[in-house]
Amino acid sequence: MFSQSLFYQWWQLRLASLLALVAAIAGANESALAQIVPDNTLGQESSVVISSPNLDQINGGAIRGANLFHSFKEFNVKEGGRAIFRNPPGIENIISRVTGGNRSEIFGRLGVLSSANLFLINPNGIIFGPNAQLNIGGSFLATTANAIGFDEQGLFSASVPNSPPVLTVNPSALLFNQIAKSITNQSTTGLQLAANQSLLLVGGDVNLEGGKLSVLNGRVELGGLAGEGTVGLNIDDKNLRLSFPDNVALADVSLTKGATVQTSFERGVGSQLGTGNIQVQGRRVTIADGSKILANNTGAEPGGTLTVRASELVEVLGASSLLAETYGVETGGNLTIDTGKLIIRDGSKIAAGTFNSGQGGTVTVRASDSVELSGTDANGANFSRIITQTDGAGNAGLVSIETGQLIVQGGAQVSTASAKTSSGQGGLLLVKASDSVQLIGTSTSADNPIPSGLFALGEGSGKPGDLTIETRSFIVRDGARASASNLGSAQSGGTLSLTASELVQLIGTSANGQVRSGLLVGSTGTGSAGELIIKTEKLQVLDGAFVSARTVGEGRGGSVMVNASNSIELNGTSADRQMPSLLTTQTTGVGDAGNLTIETGQLTIKNGAQITSSSTGIGRAGDSKVQASSLSLDQGSITSQTTSGNGGNINLSIKDLLLLRRGSEISTTAGTDQKGGDGGNITINAPNGFIVANPAENSDISANAFTGIGGRVDIKANGIYGIEFRESPTLLSDITASSEFGTQGTVELNTPDIDPNNGLVELPTIPVETKVAQGCYSPGYAQNRFVIAGRGGLPPNPKDIITPDAVQVDWVTLNPNIDNRKSPSVSLNPIKPTPEPIVEATGWVFNAKGELVFTADAPTKPHESWQSPISCRAS
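That's the S-layer family protein sequence above. Prediction below.
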């Protein structure tokens, strides 16, 4: 905290800044007439400049403890010139202010003939030209602040230029009391300090226009304020650090035209070892045009950090990069971005990797609004990405993204990876998006489109990393993907875990139809694939998209587990109808396919979509287990199929209804190449539900094999309608368990004994009343039959006249005793009760109680009618 005297000085500083602003405007169009001109504010302790054609040597100044103060009206270094500060022994900090109205132009070399730190303060701006250089043994701070504070001892102000009081302590703060001017670095030669030092540029806006900043093993900080405020300054030996308060408006920071900030050398560039720390802080931070920020670790010490904080936006554009990589034996540095919005475009990258035995650093992104990655560079060779990777024995680091919305499109990727030559493990990829995650499309390459997406991949011997996603809505479309796959020799693959509180939606293919949208865990080597877990309210797989656990090598396939509390919909195929919407586990190698487990309210599979477990190698197909309130298949299928291995089992637990329409299929088929393999079993458990199909639509439930043993079909339901057991498939809706060349399977149907179909008589399509004559038959022959047709005509009492009203009959209660009906094996026909034949009545008689009874065996002599006959004339 400042004392009252410092507070008074602070208000004086604010008042004086108005006069300084007026002077700056008045002299804005004037060029610097002199290079270095001391002012008279230090009295007898004023700076002394000794000039020669290309050298300005600066002597004098006010000494306060270990601090040396200089004050100038103008301070510039011309092209090819040098400005060198001399100081007596014991000086640690040289603090220089510029009190005139012009900016400082450093076009030559600025140096210190000692290891002291150099501070340059000019509220009117500072520019380093293309050939500017530093020759400083200590650290360097350039700022457009109005003053530097010294704890409670006072201020050294460029706006209120008084003689410094007893300022013997280290500088502790940078004070801004107006809209600060910018600092610009155009030095392609580079502003470079000795190893282990700090280089700080504090504006106003800070612009690196092709300029370079480099401190081996040191620290670089860029930042600025857009208004009044104080930036803390901490000095620890030769290490200078800034601390920005949360309640101040920040200025912008930009790196353009290939600008570079580094605290180490790039891989393969330079021979010295190094690491260091970099911090960039502003309102908007832009890294563009191939610019780079490097905080690599090439030595035997732990890596430093690269931190970018922007209150509004960080954008990395035009093949630019932020790197925190390690090429040594120690842990790599961490890369952190805190902002409102992060944009990565045009093949730019943010990366932390390890290329030796050291552990890789982490990449942490916290963006309160959104993170957007898109596109490739101009040549299409490099895609925009956030990545941690290992190409050595060290493990790759974590990638963590916390944001409101994540959008990855145009071939961009967020990934963790291990290279083919590595033995280290891949890193964890963790995404938390409070609103949504959207993975969209592929790169624009027609020959080899790169899918956009999230990837945890392993190509070496180390275990791949896991991919974990937590969001409200997760959407993958137009060929994008999310994958955790083992492409190397690791024993096991990574896990893909997706939790979306409302929706998971996978849609379609890439524009050229070559790349399907989807979720994938896979293995192509000797290791096994990992698990794929989805938890959501609603899952939609549409237009050829897929969810898959696949192995093409020796390893076992991964499992797929889906829990969708409301519904799952698989619908349609790709535009060319070649790729169905798919939920699958599969193996094409010697390993067995994984299992598939689904739990949901309503499961719908239609228009060519499939749920399948398959093996096209010698491995066994996985089992499929579904638990749902209702299951509807309309031109859809649930299958398990192998070419030579044993078929997988299908287990369906249905609460209410299983509906099969238009050629739908539930089947296990083994040995399609006629090389053996027993058929899998199908179990359908719906004790309180119904199984319904259209008999003529050829929807089937089958457990078949070719040379192996046929499978078993076991169904328990409250009723089965429109589909029935047959010994072999037909064009009707069938239930079969057969083997073309092997032992037949078995079918067991367990339903209540009451069959609403039994005893039914097919009614004519034309109402029978329309066939009854409206008049009497022509006489000439006797009629001995009595036929009643239609809904009316028979009176309740024989003494009543004939009436067209229908007779109401009370309901009766059926016998509640219910027995199970079981069909035998396919070699036997199921037993069905034969209904009593229905014979029409030909007359009536009175029984012993005087009741009228209709009978098929009426007496030959009819009763005499008690009504007069209707008179009919013959025509």
